[in-house]
Amino acid sequence: MNLRLENHDSLDFESVNVFLIAHRQTLCVFVSLVVGCLLASMQSAPEPVAHWLIRESRYQDGQIVAARGPNLMVSGFPAVRTLDGVEGYQIKDEEECFIYPWDDRSKWAAMPKSEFTISVEFAVEDDQGTHGLAACIFQPSEGLGGWRVLIKNGKPEFTVAKPGLGSAVVAGADVLTPGKRHRLDASYDGGLIKLYVDGKMQGSAEAKFGDLIYNGRAGICFADWWEGPRSFRFKGMLFSAALFDKGITPEQVSSALQSSKVSPMPGEEGGKLGISIDPFFQYPTTSEATVVWETSRIASTVVRFGLSARSAKEMKGEDSKIHTVRMSDLKPATTYFVQVESTVEGQTVTSEWQSFRTASLPGTGVKIAIVGDTQDHPETNTIVAQRIFEERPDSLMIVGDLVGMGWKKEQWVHDFFASMRPLLSHVPLLPVIGNHDRNARIYYDLMAVPQPEYCYSYKTGDVEFFAIDTNRSVQPGSVQYKWLESALKASTAKWKIAAHHHPPYSSDTDDFGDSATGPTTDGEIGLRSLSGLYDRYQVDLCFTGHIHSYERTYPLKGGKVVGEGEGTVYVVVGGGGGGLEKAKATRSVFSRVVRSAHHFGMIWADSNRLELRAYDDRGLLFDTYEMKK
Fold first, then answer.
1. Per-residue model confidence (pLDDT) at position 550
2. For residues 254-264, b (16+ Cβ closer than 10 Å) or e, as one string?
3. What local confidence, expressed as pLDDT, does residue 45 receive?
4. Is the pTM of this model over 0.85?
């Protein structure tokens, strides 16, 4: 629109009036646009408190490095996928999710309380069941507060709760399209909650709660949400998420994310090359074994191994930070010497020569150390590990809780691996995952056992171990239950030994009670479905941790004490480092030996005889048990 006034002295106001009337609609649109722009500039969206691009290019050392704000810990090993050309992670497994963990409570004061907006870009796999998309809440039935976003039968649902005031819920009206990328925005402004999907309002509800209360028991979690024993597992893909400290609209969310600067990934260019985790060995069979080590930078991979340094052959692997090389064409029950070397930009680091022993054929005696709950106590780990090494076992099994918080890379580097030398320089590791290991991806990055890694079997001599993850379901019909039954049924080993973190039988007071007013469960009752399998397939021993003490039961079958050789003996060996716990004052009917001390177990086995010995951290023998066949 052009309005030209050439002669101010002879302005024809009537003509101007006619012109304005004729172009009234155009002027209104123009004024509205100007006002809208001014209002938008006055009400611009805040910077996000946190912004996460959930993709492999942002992964480093067990974390999704945030574009802004705190990093997310990665639980499990979600697969990298693309949808419509956009990279994300596909969530399928029951333990896969992304978490800002609850242990760092000092930062909870900065969590948005008076108002917030959570935005998540995702694709749901199907429109059945309940999916936990995002949450920062823990058991509202206990009166605890926070928020959560669920997908119920394809429809989104947003809940905000505060102790004493209850909860407010908005249920979405539209069913999400499976396999399609959606963006959900949920906001709270202190008095009202709103829910949007792809910019469309799904609903709102009154929520006059004022400041929310976060108790620090649950972190921000994407792709899962749990309430006590229930877990609402997400199935689908995650692409990105953002958190704001204001209740804002989808337009403001889009504007803020478009203008938000993405922080660069921590660089390593020009840094000094070093070995951050010394080489250690895993899963030695009669013909193969794996060596793993970590360098401070992405570097080349070379392994030299042989019956001596002079006869060693060289094997190359892929460039990486965590190096995993499977050595093959080995001989059974034989000592091999190994050296690793990595190079980048003219810098080379070379390890000392280390050694390990391969697994034995049936008919050959074997010696295996077993312990649990090393956790984040390196001063104790060092002592126990030295005592184990003095016994010179063929391999070492740790029945869970290798570290105190599996999401923390520094605990793996300093608390665990640094404290377990020289033991892990010569004795291969057989890991079992525990609850403190948090199903962290860094666990799977570092451990090298058969897929899916959380359950596997291992044979040496006349012994076969069956390792399972009791953080996951082991009930009849579950994936692990079916796997375990099949593996036990197929086993021809003389000695069958189960290994998992949580104990079906325990006299511990801290976890299982010894109060006149509270229940005493004498172990994880829900795990006794496994005992039925052990009875049926004649499992000789079941080693567990979780309880930081030692306990050996009588042989048990059908939950009752039976004669020697007629049932399974359950042994808790959780004395690797965690704070000690005690058995209740009155003896449980199944209990044979209890001891509160840091300790480890040692198994000797051949084709006719198996002996278990338990030593404390001073190296003193305090329990022995013998079985013959």
1. 98
2. eebbeeeeeee
3. 67
4. yes
